[in-house]
Amino acid sequence: MTTPSEELPFTEFIQRPTAATGRLSSVRALRLRRRDADDLVVMRAERADREGEVVDFTARLLVSLLHREGGAGLVESVLPEVLPWVRFLPDADIGVFAAELAEIAFAAAALGNTGPVAQLLVEWQHTAEVHADPELHAWLSRPSGQDYGPALPPEDGQ
């Protein structure tokens, strides 16, 4: 059985690549820590392919469940077990979240890029955080008395 992952400095990977990649027989992946940049992950291509297949299968299963009669209710009922912060969302938003999650997961799996799913989860978790804090929710949802118009795109470099 392999362990989830192992960390090592990027310099060690560069200096002893054969020894470092040899560890992949007993770990899922190597996390290469870098001082001045984001960490990197190295894993066997066959494992990455299998994990991609699982993500694709899971996305298709979720979409299929949501399209079945009663499936949306089933998915909505288990979301708080899978993502405990969902309990702070208003009931109406849980259905919106479930549908959006299925659509994004399906599209992301087709691209082989789970980034949009991770981003969606972060966005909805932040929404739950606002609902969990009554003072923050009241402050953010109160009328400002002004309409500032449409949001403008950021300027270059921002």
What is the tally of helical segments? 7
* Contiguous uncertain segments of 5+ residues: none
**What's the main sheet like?**
3 strands, mixed
Q: What is the residue-averaged pLDDT? A: 88
Helix content: 55-70%
Number of domains: 2
Q: Strand order within the widest sheet?
A: 1-2-3
SSE sequence, one letter per element: EHHEEHHHHH
Estimated radius of gyration: 21 Å
Helix/sheet category: mainly alpha
Distance between the termini: 46 Å
**CA-based shape:** extended
Strand content: 5-15%
Please count the beta strands (DSSP E, at least 2 residues each).
3
What does it look like?
The protein has 158 residues and is mostly helical. It folds into 2 domains: 3-43; 47-141, no CATH class. The chain is built from 7 helices and 3 strands. It has helices at 10-15, 17-22, 45-67, 71-82, 91-111, 115-132, 134-141, and strands at 3-9, 27-33, 40-42. β2 and β3 form a beta hairpin. α5 (91-111) packs antiparallel against α6. It is extended, with a radius of gyration of 21 Å.
Reconstruct the topology from this structure.
Layout: E1 3-9, H1 10-15, H2 17-22, E2 27-33, E3 40-42, H3 45-67, H4 71-82, H5 91-111, H6 115-132, H7 134-141
Parallel strand pairs: 1-2
Antiparallel strand pairs: 2-3
